[in-house]
Amino acid sequence: MTATIAPVTIRSLRQSTINDAMTCLHRLTWVDDPDYPYQASASTAMGTGYHAGLEAAYRRRMEGEMWATVLPDIDLFVVEAIGALAMEIEKAGDNFNWELQARTARKEQRIINFEEAADIVEHMVRTYFDGGHYWDDTYQIVAVEHRFELPWGPTWTRTGTIDLVALKGNTLTVIDNKTAKAKWRKGKADAYSSPQQGWYQQAASEIWPGYEVTGAYDVMTLDGDFQRHLAHRTEAQRRLALKAGAAVAKQIERGGPYPPTPDSFLCHQSYCDYWSVCEFGRGLHEGDPKNVFA
Question: What is the pTM of this model?
Answer without folding.
Answer: 0.90
